[in-house]
Amino acid sequence: MNGFDPGYFLYFEDFDLTLRLSKVTTVAYCPLVAIVHHGGGAASKGWRHVVLFVKSARRFFGAHRSTTAN
Hints:
Strand content: under 5%
Distance between the termini: 23 Å
Number of domains: 1
Low-confidence stretches: none
Shape: globular
Structural class: mainly alpha
Mean pLDDT: 86
Helix content: 40-55%
Radius of gyration: 14 Å
Number of helices: 3
Number of strands: 0
């Protein structure tokens, strides 16, 4: 386990980290915890962000194919 994968420039790095962590520890769902993200709207920033999203999605689903198939 080496933390966030630098191969993800944007998007899916948190999903990747969570799935890798779940192989070595218990991942807890805490519905009372709220995280506020003041960014967002990347898709409206142009095609470059859409392309980055698609690249990260392909990397993520390629790496976690068996985990995400259920």
